[in-house]
Amino acid sequence: MSESPFRPAWWLPGAxxxxxxxxxxxxxxxxxxxxxxxxxxxxxxxxxxxxxGRAGSPRLLVLHGLEGSSYSVYVQGLLALAAQRGWHAxxxxxxxxxxxxxxxxxxxxxxRPRLYHSGETGDLSRVVKHLTDGDPAALxxxxxxxxxxxxxKWLGENPAQRAIAAAATLSVPYELGAGARHLEHPVGRFYAxxxxxxxxxxxxxxxxxxxxxxxxxxxxxxxxxxxxxxxDDAATAPLHGFADAADYYARSSSIAYAGCITSDTxxxxxxxxxxxxxxxxxxxxxxxxxxxxxxxxxxxGHVGFVAGATPRQPRYWAEEAVIGWLAARMCPxx
Length: 334
Fold this sequence. Notes:
By secondary structure, the protein is α/β, with parallel strands linked by helices. The protein contains eleven helices and twelve strands. The chain has helices at 15-25, 73-84, 122-132, 146-157, 176-182, 186-209, 219-224, 228-239, 245-252, 278-287, 317-330; strands at 34-39, 45-51, 59-63, 88-93, 99-100, 103-107, 139-144, 164-170, 264-270, 292-297, 306-307, 315-316. The strands form three sheets. The chain has an eight-stranded mixed β-sheet, with helices on both faces. Strands 5-6 form a two-stranded antiparallel ribbon. A two-stranded antiparallel sheet has the order 11-12. Helix 10 (278-287) links the parallel strand 9 (264-270) and strand 10. Helix 8 (228-239) packs across helix 9. The longest helix has 24 residues, at 186-209.
């Protein structure tokens, strides 16, 4: 499957239908989790959701996208594919993103006056160390959208690392500033309206529990934001030590680290991704090191890539492609 070309489902034409289909049509309960709490050095916590596999099998680590979690449909899809191969698998929930197992729509508040962002790689280092200390199983990683940006940045920051044997990403916004500007048009703001309410709710919760944060962020501007640039300028950047949104995007974009990656890495993107201009994908491809294989399809939307003969028989080409590609490197004799 990793070598098969993507043929979009005829019944799901266009980037926006490809992008939104999964949210309404896919299951969020494909696998059963074993939850683990991982303490951080600053007194916070990270929640890991594990799927146990066969003894001696590789482990897949999955990083979700913006406002996602282990219950995101694409995370469930990747974990289920790993489970079918008998692999161990772990979903890494970013701070403030873990969901209540009793109701996936309820997020679990973190214990420190901060959230998460596209360039935060310290927590990924902690998770990778935790998973690999004393465990001989080979580790592969997949990052989706924001999670893919975090993964690529971490790989570029750590070119000598050997903990992650192979990596893959889907629909990464390689240039965060270009992506934010691209989403300022009317259709782009449709997507922003999907994410901003939960981001604002988390910000309000942080301000309520930690009043000192009120002096660091522009709460009124954040709550008025109609696009990601405005929200990140008012909240994400000052909350996490950046001067403004432009500084946050410049220092966090994975394109700046792509040339330093030495680990085998596959990156899948589509030209019609509504979250990023096609030119940014080509700039990333031109910048990436020879260890990075960049596959760009003409269609597929953002984390869509839906194929299949009928709506009752959908196939999620990119998820199957990255698992097949990783398996060829993790289990070459299989």
